[in-house]
Amino acid sequence: MEPLQIQHIPLTFVSFAFDSMTHSIELSQTVQNQLAILIERYKLAVEELERMSVTLAESEANLAQTRKELAELAKGSESLKWAQGAGGSAEDRAALKAKINEWVREINTCIARLNA
Known about the structure:
Blueprint: H1 11-87, H2 90-115
Helix pairs in contact: 1-2
């Protein structure tokens, strides 16, 4: 076997290669750090989105309940107006009678359309 021969490499090339490799390692570490920051921000954004989705669902449920309550209150208010109109002044009774006549006409129109 022949002895291993070592070739002479200029010192400036070794220095350049070492500087280049060091720079590449630094760039790689910088990219890794930035990627880790982005991943953490993404996870935080996903968590915030999930919290906001829950809040939205709760708000929508509250809104639906409020609308239901409002409809019930409006219905009760209408009933109260009817009750007051029946025993109220002559003007109130006249308005009540006119409203009833209007509804009777609408019902008759609907019946006529159904029969046609």
